[in-house]
């Protein structure tokens, strides 16, 4: 009876162990998060710290802009003060000198508002508004650049996956060739040179496989970094069916693309806004040439215990004062500081103007290069397709001859290797064509999808 119970317990334990292992395997499989291109882009836009930093700079300029508008409001200040004098001193309640301890309280509130500053406040508001637009455009530029980088890296991952597959197949083929060379050598029909060459081919193939694996790991790591993911997180990059991408455009007119792109390109827009901000800065600098007119009002009262005949409340009422003042500050000579600031502001505007033109010129050059690249990618893809088809036809013939024993396995493996290489060359050319075409979409401001 005890033996049966032990057997049942052991059996139950083994079953539990098997279930646990299956659950762990299932959990491990689920841990492989599938990353699509859209998910990679969305996660980058949501998490990337470069974007967050740009958004924080934008938030700072929101505060600066709001403060520039608030500077038009009058200020309000209270200045209560309590004093205790010993010995001979002036009693402010009677304006007589007394030789006694005097405790007094005086205070008031004052307010000042600028009526005219040569348009300084208005120009500062406009300048801060433009600076806010600059930062918004800068944030948009950061996002666009990151999206482009994510797409580039994503396609690089897909390409590296194919290269690793091809390299792995080459290792298998080279090992088969080595095995045949070893058997041929063992029976005395092969030379040591042939055997050594086969071993060297295996080593080269394994090195290429290692290199391909490293390139894939690096591209996946880069993609994770853009998404701010833990490098240890296991992901699977979803591979789109490139055979279904039949609407890839490869013919563009560079001038037409440029004219459309210059309107939406974040680099150009950023440079133009910086130019406008610099121009507004010249207006701010010139505002200091003009007089400042301000209006000030004040209320106040005081109490002194030296006046023993009047109560506290009576003193505050009797000593209540009111004032209104209109002040004018006229700049006459400020050691040429304003003139220097105006000249510097004009130079900054000229720099921004040149930078805006440089941004347009760079965009024009980049677009012309991109148009040439997509045309070259199309030609490369068509050539790769023709090469693959030729190698496919050749392989079909070799396979038929191999099946009937007319050629040896070495010739067969060589033909298969050539076919595999041409196939992956064709796939890579397809990816490159897609990428080059998507680059044009990026410059046109179109959404980039696969």
Describe this structure in words.
With 450 residues, this protein is of the alpha+beta class. It contains ten helices and nine strands. The chain has helices at residues 2-31, 37-47, 49-70, 120-186, 192-226, 254-264, 266-287, 312-318, 337-403, 409-444; strands spanning 33-35, 75-78, 81-85, 88-91, 96-99, 102-116, 235-237, 292-304, 321-329. Strands 2, 3, 6, 8 and 9 form a five-stranded antiparallel sheet that branches. Helix 6 crosses helix 9 (337-403). The protein starts with a helix and ends in a 6-residue tail after the last helix.
Task: Write a concise keyword list for the protein shown above.
single chain; 450 residues; alpha+beta; five-stranded antiparallel β-sheet; two-stranded parallel sheet; 10 helices; 9 strands; 68% helix; disordered N terminus
Overall mean pLDDT:
84
Write down the secondary-structure element order. Answer: HEHHEEEEEHHEHHEHEHH
The class by helix and strand makeup works out as: alpha+beta
Q: What's the total count of β strands?
A: 9
Intertermini distance? 67 Å
Number of helices: 10
Largest sheet: 5 strands, antiparallel
Q: How would you sum up the global shape?
A: elongated
Radius of gyration: 40 Å
Strand content: 5-15%
- Share in helix: 55-70%
The low-confidence runs, each spanning 5 or more residues with pLDDT under 50, are 1-29
């Amino acid at each position: 009876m005890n033996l049966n119970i032990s057997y049942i317990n052991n059996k139950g334990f083994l079953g539990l162990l098997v279930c646990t292992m299956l659950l762990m395997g299932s959990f491990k499989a689920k841990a492989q998060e599938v990353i699509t291109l859209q998910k990679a882009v969305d996660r980058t836009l949501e998490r990337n710290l470069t974007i967050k930093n740009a958004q924080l700079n934008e938030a700072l300029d929101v505060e600066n802009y709001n403060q520039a508008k608030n500077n038009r409001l009058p200020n309000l200040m209270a200045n209560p003060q309590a004093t205790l004098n010993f010995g001979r001193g002036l009693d402010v309640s009677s304006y007589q000198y007394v030789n006694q301890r005097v405790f007094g309280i005086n205070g008031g509130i004052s307010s000042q508002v600028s009526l005219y500053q040569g348009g300084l406040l208005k120009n500062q508001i406009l300048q801060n508004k433009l600076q806010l637009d600059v930062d918004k455009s800068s944030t948009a530029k950061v996002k666009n650049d990151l999206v482009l980088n994510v797409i580039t890296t994503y396609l690089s991952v897909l390409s590296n996956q194919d290269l690793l597959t091809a390299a792995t197949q080459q290792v298998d083929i080279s090992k088969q060739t080595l095995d045949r060379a070893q058997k041929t050598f063992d029976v005395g029909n092969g030379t040591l040179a042939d055997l050594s060459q086969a071993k060297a081919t295996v080593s080269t193939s394994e090195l290429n496989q290692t290199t391909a694996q490293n390139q894939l790991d690096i591209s996946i790591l880069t993609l994770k970094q853009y998404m701010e993911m833990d490098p240890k997180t296991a992901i699977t990059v979803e591979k789109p069916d490139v055979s279904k991408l039949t609407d890839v455009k490869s013919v563009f007119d560079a001038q037409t693309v440029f004219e459309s792109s210059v309107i939406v390109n974040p680099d150009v827009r950023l440079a133009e806004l910086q130019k406008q901000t610099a121009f507004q800065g010249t207006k701010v600098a010139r505002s200091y040439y003009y007089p400042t007119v301000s209006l000030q009002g004040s209320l106040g009262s005081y109490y002194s215990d030296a006046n023993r005949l009047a109560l506290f409340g009576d003193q505050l009422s009797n000593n209540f004062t009111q004032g209104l003042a209109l002040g004018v500050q006229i700049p006459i000579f400020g050691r040429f500081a304003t003139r220097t600031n105006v000249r510097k502001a004009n130079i900054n505007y000229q720099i921004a103007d040149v930078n805006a033109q440089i941004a347009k010129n760079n965009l024009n050059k980049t677009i012309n290069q991109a148009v040439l690249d997509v045309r070259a990618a199309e030609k490369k893809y068509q050539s790769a397709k023709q090469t693959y088809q030729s190698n496919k036809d050749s392989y079909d013939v070799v396979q038929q001859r191999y099946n009937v024993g007319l050629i040896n396995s070495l010739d067969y493996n060589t033909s298969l290797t050539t076919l595999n290489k041409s196939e992956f060359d064709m796939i890579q050319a397809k990816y490159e064509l897609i990428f080059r075409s998507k680059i044009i979409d990026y410059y046109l401001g179109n959404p980039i999808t696969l």
